[in-house]
């Protein structure tokens, strides 16, 4: 755990030092669980959003995108169940006065069991070498089997208790597991209570006439209330999808782990409208599609896993998370949910408006079912950033810090250096920047020795460095250096655009999904 904590602290520190993420209102000592995306962070976030949007909307003929308002009529949230059911189980420690999500305390306990399993696997792998059979070891090693059974039993009990809203049993589980307050070590807990996560606000010029509103806790409802408008104006035929990205707001009890859990965050969601009875087929299809999208970015498949829900939300008949191996363990990155017809049927009831689809082939009307894919953009940012940050030992014994972002997502694609600040080299470097900036985000850098500039760009995540030297004056060639391999090539200036484009072109990366 100490190594995990150190790795995570390094991620947070690097994000600030290289202009990715700042604490919001830092000069006023910050605001808890609220962050600002800095110059490089804004670019990386935009690139992730674009990568999702192109894969989800542009490459699917039957999926369109919208941008619904953050403010919605308050009855929306009554119909969706958020007013009555959008709660987290809260528990306080009487000694430390700290507040926690009861379910997270239990899940963190299970995460420790999973860490023990990983340590046992690592030890066995070192012991047996090439002969090691991981699957057999997980299935037969008594200690590992015991850890797995305990973890499964705990999560099943937690899921059932939350589903039945048996908060007394959730507290009993915490006490039986001997879970202590992470801050004080105290085990003196209050009863578990439900806590609604929505932020309330007002709409109106005067207190007397103001309407009570909520900041939206999810973007999905903006899609559902616009479903019929989109279907009719777009002449959409089932199955079809509506996608959206945008801000959502939740008054998290325990907002922590940097940008993993924030009070103001951004979602990328798609609701896929289907014929009732086909939901399990589409649910499995979208699980596969979304995992392909994640793997297209080139991270090791071992960093991902599916986790099927024991406790289903009030609207779902099936739900699974794509979990990612963050520096603090496997946690939810994206959810795929079969939402049945709950949302549309409920909005139909509360609004008094028909939200049915007329199927011209079967000559029948019905309320569509929905399969949802929902990913947190901020969590995706953290996944990409944390997994890309690496410390490498070089052949000469020195080390370098390198941010190996997928080139398609990197904020700056290339940095252009004049070897020295004279002899016409800066002018040629500026010409190259002026030409490349029409196609890529590029940077000019002339400060410090070239070696230091390389290291600075490595740490910032820039895939290419281009050096202009005295030979450039003679033959219009430059040195281009690749971030990941540190390989250097001598190429003509006129070839730069093609070399960079080959590595950063979104089409080439997204083709991995369909190939």
Automatic annotation (TrEMBL):
Q: Which residues form the Aminoacyl-transfer RNA synthetases class-II family profile domain?
A: 177-418
Q: In its keyword annotation, does this UniProt entry include Methyltransferase?
A: no
- The UniProt annotation places substrate binding at 101, 218, 265-269, 372-376
What does the record give as EC number? 6.1.1.14
**Has the keyword Membrane been applied to this entry?**
no
Query: CDD domains of this UniProt entry?
Result: GlyRS-like_core (cd00774), GlyRS_anticodon (cd00858)
Q: What class of enzyme is it?
A: ligase
Q: Please write the reaction equations for the catalytic activity of this protein.
A: tRNA(Gly) + glycine + ATP = glycyl-tRNA(Gly) + AMP + diphosphate
* Keywords, in A-Z order: Aminoacyl-tRNA synthetase, ATP-binding, Cytoplasm, Ligase, Nucleotide-binding, Protein biosynthesis
Q: Which InterPro entries match?
A: aa-tRNA-synt_IIb, aa-tRNA-synth_II, aa-tRNA-synth_II/BPL/LPL, Anticodon-bd, Anticodon-bd_dom_sf, Gly-tRNA_synthase/POLG2, Gly_tRNA_ligase_bac, GlyRS-like_core
Q: Which residues bind ATP?
A: 250-252, 260-265, 332-333, 376-379
Which GO MF term does the entry hold, naming one? glycine-tRNA ligase activity
The protein's location, in the record's own words, is:
Cytoplasm
Q: How does it assemble?
A: Homodimer.
Family per UniProt?
Belongs to the class-II aminoacyl-tRNA synthetase family.
Q: Which NCBIfam families match?
A: glyS_dimeric (TIGR00389), PRK04173.1 (NF003211)
What is the protein's known function? Catalyzes the attachment of glycine to tRNA(Gly).
Quote the protein name from its UniProt record: Glycine--tRNA ligase
């Amino acid at each position: 755990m100490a190594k995990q904590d150190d790795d995570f602290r390094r991620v947070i520190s690097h994000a600030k030092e290289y202009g990715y993420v700042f604490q919001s209102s830092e000069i006023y000592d910050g605001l808890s669980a609220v962050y600002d995306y800095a110059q490089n962070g804004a670019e990386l976030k935009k690139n992730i959003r674009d990568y999702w949007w192109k894969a989800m909307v542009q490459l699917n003929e039957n999926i369109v995108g919208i941008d619904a308002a953050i403010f919605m009529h308050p009855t929306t949230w009554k119909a969706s169940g958020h007013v009555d059911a959008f709660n987290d189980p809260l528990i306080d420690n009487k000694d430390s006065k700290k507040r926690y999500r009861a379910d997270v305390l239990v899940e963190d306990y299970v995460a420790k069991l999973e860490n023990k399993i990983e340590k046992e696997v690592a030890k066995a792998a070192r012991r047996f070498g090439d002969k090691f059979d991981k699957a057999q070891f997980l299935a037969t090693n008594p200690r590992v089997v015991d850890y797995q059974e305990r973890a499964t039993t705990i999560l099943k009990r937690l899921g059932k208790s939350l589903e039945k809203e048996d908060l007394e049993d959730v507290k009993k589980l915490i006490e039986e597991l001997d879970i202590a307050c992470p801050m004080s070590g105290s085990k003196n807990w209050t009863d578990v209570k439900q806590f609604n996560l929505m932020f309330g606000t007002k709409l109106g010029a005067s207190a007397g006439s103001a309407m009570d509103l909520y900041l939206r806790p999810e973007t999905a409802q903006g899609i559902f209330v616009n479903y019929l408008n989109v279907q009719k104006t777009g002449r959409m035929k089932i199955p079809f999808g509506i996608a959206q990205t945008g801000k959502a707001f939740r008054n998290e009890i325990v907002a922590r782990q940097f940008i993993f859990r924030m009070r103001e965050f951004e979602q990328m969601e798609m609701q896929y409208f289907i014929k009732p009875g086909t939901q399990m087929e589409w649910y499995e299809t979208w699980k596969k599609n979304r995992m392909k999208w994640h793997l297209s970015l080139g991270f090791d498949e071992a960093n991902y896993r599916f986790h099927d829900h024991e406790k289903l939300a009030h609207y779902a008949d099936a739900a699974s998370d794509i979990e990612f191996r963050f520096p603090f363990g496997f946690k939810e990155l994206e959810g795929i949910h079969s939402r049945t017809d709950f949302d549309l049927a409920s909005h139909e009831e509360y609004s008094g408006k028909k939200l049915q689809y007329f199927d011209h082939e079967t000559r029948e009307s019905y309320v569509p079912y929905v399969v949802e894919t929902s990913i947190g953009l901020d969590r995706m940012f953290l996944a990409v950033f944390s997994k890309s940050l690496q410390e490498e030992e070089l052949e000469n014994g020195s080390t370098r810090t390198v941010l190996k972002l997928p080139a398609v997502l990197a904020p700056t694609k290339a940095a252009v250096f004049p070897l020295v600040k004279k002899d016409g080299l800066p002018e040629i470097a500026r010409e190259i920047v002026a030409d490349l900036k029409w196609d890529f985000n590029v940077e000019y850098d002339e400060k410090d020795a070239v070696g230091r500039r390389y290291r600075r760009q490595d740490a910032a995540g820039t895939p290419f460095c281009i050096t202009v030297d005295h030979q450039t004056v003679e033959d219009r060639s430059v040195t281009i250096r690749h971030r990941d391999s540190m390989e250097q090539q001598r190429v003509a200036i006129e070839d730069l655009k093609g070399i960079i484009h080959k590595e950063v072109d979104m089409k080439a990366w997204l083709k991995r999904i369909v190939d």
